Amino acid sequence: MNIAMIASEHKIAYQSSFGQDTVVSAGFLWEDFTYDKLKFYNNVNFITRGSALADAVSTVSPT
């Protein structure tokens, strides 16, 4: 089954950033802790991961 995913980002200033200990407790592997997946300024960032996996990304503002 192919299902497309759209990541809709709102209030980017309030990103979902967490400490590195979140990698394993959230069910990810340490191999996922890279800048193109989860890592953002040495923290875990779920918006980064969602954007990387999404087929399309939308925002609520034109910028």
What does this structure look like?
This protein has two helices and five strands, in the order ββαββαβ. The mean pLDDT is 83. It is globular. The chain has a domain at 15-55. The chain has a three-stranded antiparallel β-sheet. It is α+β, with helices and mostly antiparallel strands.
User: How are the strands of the largest sheet arranged?
Assistant: 2-4-3
SSE class: alpha+beta
Shape: globular
For the residues shown, what is the average pLDDT? Answer: 83
DSSP helix fraction: 10-25%
Question: What's the topology here?
Answer:
Elements (H helix, E strand, L loop, with lengths): L5 E4 L7 E2 L3 H4 L13 E2 L2 E3 H8 L2 E4 L4
Parallel strand pairs: 1-5
Antiparallel strand pairs: 2-4, 3-4
Key features?
63 residues; alpha+beta
Précis, in short:
This protein has 63 residues and is α+β, with helices and mostly antiparallel strands.
